[in-house]
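Section 4.2 – Deliverable D4.2 (structural model, holo form)

The reporting period included a commitment to supply a predicted holo structure for the target in complex with L2XQQQDX. Inputs used:
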Amino acid sequence: MMQYESAKAVFADWGVDTEAALAKLAEIPISMHCWQGDDVVGFEQKSGSSGGGIQATGSHPGRARTPDELRADLEFSYGMIPGNHRLNLHACYLDTDQNPDRDEIEYGHFASWVDWAKEQRLGLDFNPTFFAHAKADDNLTLSHPDQGIRDFWIEHGKRSRDIAAQMGAALGSPVVNNIWVPDGYKDTPVDRMASRVRLEQSLDAIRALKHDKAQMLDAVESKLFGIGVEACTVGSHEFYMGYAIRNETLLCLDMGHFHPTENVADKLSSVALSLDEILLHVSRPMRWDSDHVILLDDAILQMAQELVSANLLDRTHIGLDFFDATISRTAAWVIGTRNMQKALLQALLAPWDELKRAESRLDFTTRFMATEEIKDLPYGAVWSEFCARMEVATGKALIADLARYQKKVEARG
Ligand SMILES: C[C@H](O)[C@H](O)[C@@H](O)C(=O)CO
Ligand SMILES: [Mn+2]
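Output (C-alpha cells):
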C-alpha cells in the first residue's frame, strides 16, 4: 500500500492518474481460449488426421481430458487472474454423450458451458472448428472444389453462428463467433481466384441469416501460412480485410499470422479506420506461428499502447491464442493473461497527452527522452495494488499457488 501511494505520486508528477488507470483496467475483459487447457484436442468422440497446420508440442502432465477437468482448470486459472473475463470456446469442445458430426452440432451440446459461464460470471466467445476432421484432410474446407464437402462445412458454420447467438442471448453479452479455416495449398496453385471465390461464397452462405448484434458478432481470421499450406493460404489478410469491410464483420488479427518482421500493433489504427470492431488473437510467434505463451515483451506492450493511444479499447475484443504443452497449462493461461493485463496497465499509465503534443510539434527528442524515461516508472507497485484489490496473489505466493495446482493435476497422468 505504501509502495502504491509513492508510485501514485510518481505517476501524478507525469500527469497520470493511477486510480483512473486501475478503474479502466478492471473493465477490460480478456477472452481466454479453452484450447490452451488440453493442447487443442477437444471432446469429440471421433476426429480426423488433419491438424490444420497448427500444432501443440510437449507432453507436460496434467492435460484436461474431459469438460469437467477443463472447467476445474479454468476455474482455478480465473481465480488467479484479476478482473472478470471471458472464455473462448471451440466447437470441438462440445459437452454431450451424443456423438454429433460437425454438421449436426446444436446449442444443447454446449448448454453445460453456458450454465457454467453464468455461474462463474464469464462471457463466452465461440469458434466453428474447421480442422481435425476427415473432411478437412485435404487442407480445404469452405473453399474445397467438391460442393459436398463445402456444404458440410457451410452447415457447420451456420450451426456455430446459431449456437453462438443463443449463447449470447442466454448470457446477455454478444458472443464473438470467429471463423478461421486452414484452407490452402502446399505447392503453388494455378487457380487461386477459384479458391477465393469459393471461400467467399461459402462465407456468404454461412452468414446469410442475420443475427442480432447484441447476441452474436461475426469475425473472420486471416493467416499467412501453416504447415502443409506453405504456398498459398486462401483466407489471406487481403482476402479477409476486404471481406470484413464489405460485410461489416470483425476482422481478427492474430499476432502469429503475419510475416515475423511485421508489427501487428501498427495495423490497428489502419484497419480501425475501415472497420467498426476488431478481434485480436494475442500470441507470440517464434520463427513461425508457433503460438508461444505471451510474454510481457515489446510486441505485447506495443499492442497495448496502440489500443490505448488510438482509443480502440472499446471496439477491440482482446482474445488470446497460444498453446504450450511443455509447461503447466494452467500456469500458461494465468501468466499469459496477466501479461496482457500488465501491458494494458502500462499503456494506461503512459502520459499520452504529453507524448502526442511532442510528436505533433515534431519534437522527436522530447518524445524519445520521455518514452525511454517512463520505462523506469513503478508499474509493479500499481499492478500489485490492482491484484491486492482484486484479491489475487502476486510474486512468490502466485508461483506457489500455480505449482500447488499443477501438482494436483499431475495425478491425471
Ligand atoms: C484453435 C484456433 O482456432 C486457431 O489457433 C486459430 O485461431 C489460428 O490461429 C490458427 O493458426
Ligand atoms: Mn488465431
